[in-house]
Structure prediction request, 184 residues.
Amino acid sequence: MERIPGQTGHLLLNEEGAVLASSGDLENDEKSAVIIMGLMNLSSYVDKTAFPEEGFKKLSITYDKHCYIICLSNRKVHVVKKTINGDNSNVAS
Amino acid sequence: MEKNLDRVMEEVVSQPGVFGCVFVDHQGLCLGAKGKASTESAGLIAAIAEQAAKLEPHSGAPIIALENDDKTCIIQRTGTITGAIYKNKHS
Prediction:
């Protein structure tokens, strides 16, 4: 996780939303963990007409200069907070 | 007002890759939907925008992107209105 370019923090949560590991800006950030778990629960019910497939693979929350990238792997939720540099769009990658 | 929104939605779905859009008010009520989008998820879209805004309450409204292999759902709130755009990734 530390090797991700522009990374300023990371969180590793289990399926219940408990913090398993954390670093940087997100160190022991249980408040963000709760909000992110809430978002993940909500996003699994988005428009079944447009997205009939089961759920989404990646969730990103983008601000002007930084973003959060969230994905589920091996029954764990991985969250990375990173800065956005120049024209390198994180939403499209 | 509805005519203006209708025109905007028409313009949005005519963009390359876009196959649907939904607009929602601050209460989660649907203002309009175009393309392959259901009005039923209006409340959910407003809830997602509200939940994401809690992450950094002082940083302004973020753009939320939900992605799977071939489609993306992009959500952003502007003022009291939340918009969701559904896009195909490979088009």
User: Anything to note?
Assistant: The longest helix of chain B spans residues 2-13. Chain B is about 25% helix and 35% strand. The mean pLDDT of chain B is 93.
